[in-house]
UniProtKB/TrEMBL annotation:
Keyword Transmembrane helix in annotation: yes
GO biological process: phospholipid biosynthetic process
Name of this protein: Acyl-phosphate:glycerol-3-phosphate O-acyltransferase PlsY
Lineage of origin: unclassified sequences, metagenomes, ecological metagenomes
Record-annotated membrane-spanning stretches: 12-33, 62-84, 90-107, 119-141, 161-185
Length: 207
């Protein structure tokens, strides 16, 4: 007999988590910079594989492509889960899997990025008003301070509050809280630099 959670077979949850994880593990920033002739992104700038570090190459279109692809893999994981299974609870596992895949990609010995773009894409696909609110928060903080990490932390910190108080969705707020905590953990070095006033601004190349 197949185990069920809320009338959904347990193996569906594992399939969504595993499928999302594999999709999230695709290191688009690393792939694009290599194709663009910039070499190994992990040996440049901050060493991160995300769009902010790609921007430090000076190639803005490449950075934008990385941002869209990294957010897109979170959104795609969620949309595929919905199209295949049509069950809302599975969307959290698919999106969470994509987020974990970006943070701990199997293709890069589990050494990945910080997950902000994938986080945004996942939220946009699960609940687009919440995702849009987080994107706007990121954009406003970026315009005011031009510090990528501060923008990411601000959007992450507010996402559970948006989910619970504005959109009245407790499961979504819990999901956003879990991902936000992981984003803060991945940004621990950035937080230290923010507190010391040494965090670089967007557009500034890191030696």
């Amino acid at each position: 007999m197949t185990a069920l959670i809320n009338d959904v077979p347990l193996n569906y949850f594992f399939l969504c988590l595993a499928g999302g994880y594999l999709l999230g593990s695709l290191p688009f920033g690393l792939i694009l910079t290599r194709l663009g002739g910039y070499g190994d992104l992990r040996k440049m700038g901050s060493g991160n594989i995300g769009a902010t570090n790609v921007l430090r190459t000076g190639n803005k279109p490449l950075a934008l492509a990385t941002l869209l692809l990294d957010s897109g893999k979170g959104a795609l994981a969620v949309l595929l889960a919905w199209l295949i299974f049509g069950e809302v609870s599975l969307l959290y596992f698919a999106g969470g899997g994509a987020f974990l895949g970006h943070l701990y990609p199997i293709f890069l010995e589990f050494k990945g990025g910080k997950g902000v773009a994938t986080f945004m894409g996942t939220l946009l696909a699960i609940n687009w008003p919440l995702g849009l609110a987080c994107c706007l928060t990121w954009g406003i903080v970026t315009m005011l301070f031009r510090i990528s990490s501060l923008s990411a932390l601000g959007a992450a910190a507010l996402s559970p509050l948006y989910g619970y108080f504005i959109f009245k969705d407790f499961p979504l707020a819990v999901f956003a809280t879990i991902l936000s905590v992981m984003i803060f953990i991945r940004h621990k070095d950035n937080i230290r630099r923010l507190l010391s006033g040494t965090e670089p601004r967007i557009g500034r190349k890191t030696p």
